[in-house]
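Margin note from the TA: students keep mixing up input and output lines. Inputs are the sequences; the output is the structure of the whole complex. Example:
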Amino acid sequence: MIPVAFDYEKVHTIDEAIAALSNDDTKILAGGHSLIPAMKLRLSRPEKLIDIGGITALKDIKEEDGEIVIGAAATHADILYHPLIRTHLPFFTEGAAMIGDMQVRNHGTIGGSLAHADPAADWPAMVLAADATIEMQGPNGRRSIKATEFFTGLFSTALEPNELITAIRIAMPPDGTKSTYQKFAQPASRFSLAACAVMRFPDGGTTIAFTGVADHAFRDTGAEHVISGKPIDDDSIEKAMQAALQMVDVLSDHYASEAYRKHLAKVYLRKALLAVKG
Ligand SMILES: Cc1cc2nc3c(=O)[nH]c(=O)nc-3n(C[C@H](O)[C@H](O)[C@H](O)COP(=O)(O)OP(=O)(O)OC[C@H]3O[C@@H](n4cnc5c(N)ncnc54)[C@H](O)[C@@H]3O)c2cc1C
């Protein structure tokens, strides 16, 4: 459980981080709560770690041009306790409180969670349901990508190895928007065995995303289509549950069989829809 020897550099600006990332065997270190365990197991063997914990600009949570902007190095706890988030994205507050334990929440970052793309991580489902945009910066400049295009597979994303996630942007939800994050947690790790994030807008538009269920988090457009614009009642919930999970291969592992995970996901979709019912 000892990592291969590595170099370490702490940077204080985004430009310093990008310059330091030019070497392919270099990795960003944020909270270290996914990377360090992987290095201890020797699943990851970077030659050098670039610690972004000193870049204060990456920790900002603010409102800008009608959007909520969350810096990539904001910790789960920073998001959990931020009044802007509590007011406008209450399901981020709800979801952040369910991540790991206090130590994990105080160190782990939203950017690290998205970049790591664990199939059972919580932020991917929440940023998908929020229809977030993920901002990145690398040697070729800045770019942004919708969360729906970011997660590409098991632990894989659209992020290039020498790119840094800088922020997550979410359009300010209109007044009257409801949202929820409902999670069935693996009892030891607290990771999701199945979890569902839902946003319900005043016009009835509904976004639904799952994590823990397939090899990466995903928006369930089948279930969204059934429930959007319709009243939430027993009939529409039943139809949404039937329509859900049609477009993914549901995971089966030693924690939960495919059938059990499917059942859990649908039950948690039902709980989520009841929670945002008008
Ligand atoms: C005991 C335990 C319980 C946990 N429980 C949960 C849970 O219930 N739910 C959950 O979702 N997660 C859980 N986690 C994971 C935790 O949330 C991690 O902190 C998180 O997944 C990774 O964030 P980090 O800041 O620690 O990233 P790091 O471990 O520092 O980095 C992870 C990866 O992301 C890359 N990276 C980091 N930041 C950036 C960036 N800004 N741009 C580009 N790449 C970047 C790194 O190079 C590395 O490859 C748990 C972890 C532990 C140890």
